Amino acid sequence: MTTTILQIAEASGDYGKTVHSYEPQLTGVNEIRIAGRDYKRQSEFFDNQFSTTQNSVEFAKNGGGFYVDQDDIVRWHSNGRPPFGDMLLDLHEAGLITLNQVERTCTYTEIRTEQFWDEQFDKIKMEDK
């Protein structure tokens, strides 16, 4: 069954503590929906992570590969872009970012993607005139 961050926070009884904690909050959650996208854990063969590998998390953790900006958006140092959702979930499970940062980053990415496509379709419409 797919769950959401809101459902996890409501079940804990303390929304603020749950979403702002660096302690992993996804124990027992195998499918989660964030900003309209569904994420599933991989098999035991992949250490039950969401889609990235442990060495990706280690790189992010030890190499200083990411930072959190003033808007609570997680970004890569290398290019300033947000990591993809699976990576964000794995970073949360490693205790490196909060669920709030996961949700804000995923929402930001979805909004920017929607804006990009709107602009592209507007350009196509202008070319057709």
Question: Can you characterise this structure?
Answer:
Strands 1-2-3 form a three-stranded mixed beta sheet. α4 runs antiparallel to α5. It has one domain. It is an alpha+beta fold and 129 residues long. The radius of gyration is 16 Å and the shape is globular. The protein has five helices and five strands, in the order βααββαββαα.
Summarize the structure.
This protein has 129 residues and is of the alpha+beta class. It has helices spanning 5-12, 15-20, 54-62, 85-93, 99-128, and strands at residues 3-4, 31-34, 37-40, 66-68, 74-76. It starts with a strand and ends with a helix.
Low-confidence stretches: none
Summed up, the domain count is 1
**Tally the helices: what do you get?**
5
> Main sheet?
3 strands, mixed
Largest sheet: spatial strand order: 1-2-3
The best one-word shape is globular
The ordered H/E elements are EHHEEHEEHH
Instruction: Please state the CA-atom Rg, rounded to the nearest Å.
Output: 16 Å
- Gap from first CA to last CA: 47 Å
Strand content: 5-15%
Total strands: the figure is 5
Percentage of helical residues? 40-55%
Counting helices, strands and paired strands, the structural category is alpha+beta
Mean pLDDT: 84
